[in-house]
Structures are given as structure tokens and as C-alpha cells.
User: Fold this.
Amino acid sequence: MAEKRNIFLVGPMGAGKSTIGRHLAEMLHLEFYDSDQEIERRTGADIAWVFDLEGEEGFRVREENVIEDLTGMQGIVLATGGGSVLSRETRNRLSARGIVVYLETPIEKQVARTQRDKRRPLLQTEEAPQHVLERLAAERNPLYEEIADFTIRTDEQSARAVANQIVEQLGF
Ligand SMILES: Nc1ncnc2c1ncn2[C@@H]1O[C@H](COP(=O)(O)OP(=O)(O)OP(=O)(O)O)[C@@H](O)[C@H]1O
Ligand SMILES: O=C(O)C1=C[C@@H](O)[C@@H](O)[C@H](O)C1
Ligand SMILES: [Mg+2]
Assistant:
């Protein structure tokens, strides 16, 4: 049987990777994974707690390991953590083992979408979320672009409509 392909969603916090990823997996009859959720499952702690106990550095090690394992699977949709592309090894694995879709959205939209929940420790600081997200974007957008097979904006349509658009672009 032909190898089943993987789809990896990358992009910043609030781009909609987790939400759109679930729709996409359902539409394509693939399994859905989310690296943040997988870290929570393996540690039995939430993301904020991992950041508190181990710092961002410890979190990144866990993230790299989880993505190494998940990218070794076949036939999955994976929503990656927003900062996972900081690791060169992770970027190489994502590029080599699946189709990478960059979900792009303006900062203002990211701010609005991440305002209500407190699960993103990098945004729980004195600095305004808008500034943090701008700083992260300057460093990370080139990395998302570097590995993307294609890019889709997620601020103009519903999550389901974006998933549909991805299915069309994938052509399978
Ligand atoms: N296309 C969309 N249209 C409207 N709302 C959306 C869309 N995509 C996502 N949202 C909403 O935005 C919020 C953030 O989305 P989501 O958690 O999927 O982002 P994420 O990219 O996984 O972020 P993170 O990197 O922090 O995990 C959710 O409440 C979701 O319902
Ligand atoms: O952009 C980031 O660095 C992060 C995004 C989230 O998906 C989580 O992985 C965590 O909150 C860190
Ligand atoms: Mg997510």
C-alpha cells in the first residue's frame, strides 16, 4: 500500500492550527494530533505548568521530542506549537516527513483570538500581547516560510472553510 501522507500545520498562536487541524483530519479521515496536547498528555501537566517548572527551555526539549515521535507516524494531521519551528531539527523533520501548511493571520486577529484563555504562558507577561506577538513574528515568520509547502490566511473565513481550502490545495 502507498505510504499515507502527513499534514503539518505551522504558524503563530491564534492562527487556528488546533481548530483547523481537527476539521482537516475529519475531512481527510486522518488522525489528529496536537503537539501541545501531547506534551500535556505525557507530562500530566498543562503547558503553563511545564513552563513554570522547567522554563521555556525545558518545554522546547519536550516539544522537540514529541514532534520527533509524531512525525514518525503516517497519515496524521499535526497541529504544532507556535514556537516549535525554532528548532532546526524540528524544521528538518517537518519538511522531510509531510506537507507543511503555514497558517498566517494578522497580529490583531491573533490578539483577539488569544485574549480569552490563559493557556499561553508567553502572553501572560507585563508586556502587551500585541508587542510580544510582533516580536515573535519577526523571529519566526521567516522560519514558517522556510518550511511551508504553501500558506493560507485564516482571518477571512471560518475554520471549516479554511480546512476546505487546504483540502483543495492538497489535491487529494
Ligand atoms: N478561521 C477561524 N475563524 C475564526 N476563529 C477561529 C479560526 N480559527 C481559529 N479560531 C479561534 O481562534 C482561537 C485560537 O485558535 P487555535 O487554538 O486553534 O490556535 P492555535 O494556532 O492552535 O494556537 P496555539 O499555537 O497557541 O496552540 C480559538 O478560539 C478558535 O476557535
Ligand atoms: O508560540 C509559542 O511559543 C507557543 C505556542 C503554543 O502553541 C504553546 O506551544 C506554547 O504556549 C508556546
Ligand atoms: Mg494550538
Q: What stands out?
A: Residues 3 and 168 are 20 Å apart (CA to CA). The chain is about 55% helix and 15% strand. Strands lie at 7-10, 31-34, 76-79, 99-104, 150-153. Helices lie at 17-28, 35-43, 47-70, 88-97, 107-114, 129-147, 159-170.
